[in-house]
Specification:
Two copies of one chain form a homodimer.
Chain A: H1 5-24, E1 28-34, H2 35-38, E2 46-49, H3 61-73, H4 80-88, E3 93-96, E4 102-103, E5 115-123, E6 126-133, H5 149-173, E7 176-177, H6 179-187, H7 197-211, H8 218-229, H9 236-249, E8 259-265, E9 268-273, E10 281-284, E11 289-292, E12 305-306, H10 310-313, H11 328-331, H12 335-346, E13 349-358, E14 364-370, H13 372-378, E15 383-389, E16 397-404, H14 407-419
Parallel strand pairs in A: 2-3, 4-6
Antiparallel strand pairs in A: 1-5, 1-7, 5-6, 8-9, 8-12, 9-10, 11-16, 13-14, 15-16
Helix pairs in contact in A: 1-9, 3-4, 3-5, 5-7, 6-7, 7-8, 13-14
Chain lengths: 422, 422
């Protein structure tokens, strides 16, 4: 694909705008509400999942499990068998989170009664708003396709207790700016995708005093605090929601070759480009290069799945891996490898993030704004931090590691972008 | 100073024991009580200060200021003038924290009514216990020699509200192990001396849910949480107390050349050695190599002061500087310089810490157990993180940086250790 210098300059000018919008976006946690009350199109019988749209029976076991769980949680079915049958029969709509500006981790299933974090920003009179579920913790959780009373009871508690508690607390704190938390957490060794210890602590320290200023009883406040304190991945979903607002801010700039979405449903990996709107370019999802938990191997694994690589699309996660040497224990590899990944991503990005600074690289910014032109020129594909789910429902997380994106969808995207040049 | 190989082996065997005791020590926060109720020898009219013993009028302005403040806080004087006169007249005993197993930051002034963290460990049937004040925060605080109602009111609140609240909470949590918090915070970019953001957050996350399990009212719990959440140095004193227990554990091993105390009163820097008990070796305190706050320079500075270098003596702080690139902003320098300091300290230490691991050095342990023999052989002196106080009372902190210890006291210590060999 040969592109003239004039065209390249045209693209570069568009990318400058997209990059600037992404890096000046200021996502704020605004409130917590039930999805049906706030997410567009969630008022009816509908379930969302991560990644591009796919038929129920083509989705991986992990996601089918999570959808079954959501049916039972919503009391749309009283058994797993009934839920599975009804899902096959079209009892509910099944749509991708993407169509609703929702980002979902792993299976990413969202149902109307679940509360969501509402994350927004005002930009030149325009409101940008994204939504994400509340992280359930580790262990037996819906996003990894786990089923059973433990899962539903926790989801009900999140709906009835935790969500309203967060809502009341944010009324006291006012909207909470998320970029300063992410920036500080990168200084504290999180890449804020697979490692969220520092970010969760920082968010917890910020929000918990104000819990005491609400009318809630001490016992409830205790439960809410224990839940956050006990979940080292609590901030992950907030990180995803912030990244979604950041990337939505860079969307829709004519001629821009910046990537604005990466996501996968476990079958197909998809991307969007700023310059081609919501047009999706897809390629088969790849396996994660993972460190498996004891007793598991790649044979047990679901391919790369989830919307969480919105984080890398926004310029951190694996792109900030050099800042997070402590994650190496969890995902395998060496510190040098982590630095190498950050440096490699720099070759395919428009610029350096002005806010997300990496101390050990003498405070250089994280590579931000994946440029599909550079991806295709260098053949270097984006790397993403990733959890690995068992390929069957009900078996949970079996590892974590690094995934690389399939090149084909970037090539397809670039071809179309070029075809649209004036 | 020539030492035969046989002698060196004897010393090494002793150092092995001291190192093992230091690195297996398990300091726990046991309770919070008024100094007069728990610190040996604090029942009468007495004030403690950091560093070696010194006459009141020879102590730096910072410390004299803090002592004056403590007189007013204890209601032993009603004005600064009266307090100063009474201190000169010997109205109270003035002793070093060191004599009471207390560690004090900067001026390090402790008076009988102030609550202290009690940090202890049981080792082979023996109880080791150290004490430290509760960190007041930044700004107008007694440890930097600030005076006035704001300072006394905060100290009274700490005495009447915060201390008892901590005590009630620790009753619910049980003794809190401090080494896991320090180890995790080193992973999160603290060296846990000049940077305590991660450690403070981690401690806060650990302890705050249990605040709700006490009988305290919500408004009080709110105040307690706000105080901790708003003080990024809150954990510093706990870090010092843990380090004191660690170093006390290595004390008193015949023939051991391991350094077990480093401290300074702003005039003289002192050390003790494991093999020579509480014998003090002193040399004039040096200036800190500091990054000064705007409007200040070395001319305004008090020399290196405080007991907080107990942290380096225990094997972290500046010795873990490579783990804390984010501190460079605060103290100046480059990331390479931080790594260089950790590597340099390795040359004068007995071994690598098995618990305090530095991710960016591929999880090697922090250099631990300063060996006075190696110090004198190489001429490399210990480096320490340090705050810088104004030399006059009431002017507070004016910078932060790195201090190096004076070689002379190490040479004197080694000479005496050798003279005691059988």
């Amino acid at each position: 694909m040969n592109i003239s210098e004039t065209r390249k300059q045209m693209v570069d000018t568009a990318n400058e705008i997209a990059f600037k919008r992404m890096t000046t976006a200021d996502p704020k946690l605004e409130t917590v509400m039930a999805a049906k009350e706030v997410v567009p199109g969630m008022g009816s019988r509908i379930l969302l999942h991560s990644g591009p749209a796919e038929k129920y029976d083509k989705l991986p076991g992990t996601t089918r499990g999570a959808l079954i769980g959501a049916m039972i949680y919503e009391e749309w079915a009283s058994s797993e068998e009934e839920a599975d049958r009804r899902l096959r029969e079209g009892y509910t709509k099944i749509e991708p989170c993407f169509d609703h500006d929702v980002v979902g981790a792993m299976a990413g299933v969202l149902s109307p009664s679940m509360p969501v974090f509402v994350i927004g920003d005002e930009q030149g009179g325009k409101t940008i708003r994204a939504f994400t579920t509340i992280n359930e913790g580790l262990g037996k959780v819906l996003r990894f396709g786990f089923l059973g009373p433990e899962v539903y009871n926790r989801l009900k508690w999140i709906e009835k207790v935790f969500g309203p508690a967060m809502n009341l607390t944010i009324e006291k704190t006012g909207p909470i700016r998320l970029k300063p938390i992410i920036a500080e957490s990168i200084r504290r060794g999180d890449e804020v995708h697979n490692r969220n210890k520092a970010s969760t602590s920082a968010f917890y320290v910020l929000i918990t005093p104000k819990l005491l200023k609400t009318s809630m009883e001490k016992e409830i406040i205790y439960e809410v605090m224990e839940f956050m304190a006990g979940n080292v991945h609590f901030f992950l979903n907030l990180s995803m929601g912030a990244a979604k607002v950041i990337t939505l801010s860079g969307q829709g700039i004519k001629n821009s070759s910046i990537v604005t979405t990466m996501f996968t449903n476990g079958c197909e990996f998809g991307i969007t480009l700023s310059g081609t709107g919501n047009r999706l370019y897809k390629a088969p999802a790849r396996m994660v290069d993972a460190k498996y938990f004891k007793g598991f191997s790649e044979r047990d694994a679901c391919p790369h799945i989830g919307d969480s690589m919105i984080i890398e699309t926004a310029g951190y996660g694996a792109f900030a891996l050099a800042a997070s040497p402590a994650i190496i224990e969890f995902i395998g590899g060496t510190v040098e490898y982590a630095i190498e990944i950050t440096n490699k991503m720099r070759k395919i990005c428009y610029g350096s993030n002005p806010d997300f600074l990496i101390p050990i690289l003498n405070y250089s910014g994280t590579p931000t704004g994946i440029d599909v032109l550079k991806v295709c020129e260098t053949g270097i594909v984006p790397m993403m931090d990733a959890g690995v789910a068992h390929k069957e429902a009900g078996k949970g997380q079996i590892g974590a590691g690094i995934a690389s994106a399939p090149l084909a969808c970037f090539e397809e995207g670039l071809r179309e972008l070029i075809s649209r040049f004036d």
